[in-house]
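We close this part of the discussion by returning to an individual protein. Part of our work consisted of pairing the sequence of a single chain with a tokenised description of its backbone. What the numbers capture is local backbone geometry rather than side-chain detail. The amino acid sequence and the backbone structure tokens for this protein are reproduced below.
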Amino acid sequence: MRTMGLDVGSKTVGVAVSDGLGWTAQGIETVKINEEQNQYGFKRIGELLKEYEVTKVVVGIPKNMNGTIGPRGEASQFYGNELNKRFGVEVIYWDERLTTIAAERVLLDADVSRKKRKKVIDKMAAVMILQGYLDSQN
């Protein structure tokens, strides 16, 4: 059974899954959503949960630097709660402070163009969220 990592934004959700042993995270895709229009991509996430036989989902929570949870964190908690209700998967919330910045830095260091970075940044952030969680478990 695998674990899925999600980086939830207002326009996209970056998706990563673990290998079968739960050691490494791989980026899968970026799901387009539209929070303003209540389009959250749950159908696609459900398909991925089934395809990869996911039993646990790690949702990144963008906490403020003082540890409090702001509007984006609350939106991520809503997303995780909906996944639990709709699909019955265990949801774990993971502090994702600075993961998007770290992902951007990795892509810059790899000399990835701005256009390509925009396409993969959320997926890369999901990998970092999931890998952080997996490392804490092993």
The chain has a mean pLDDT of 88.
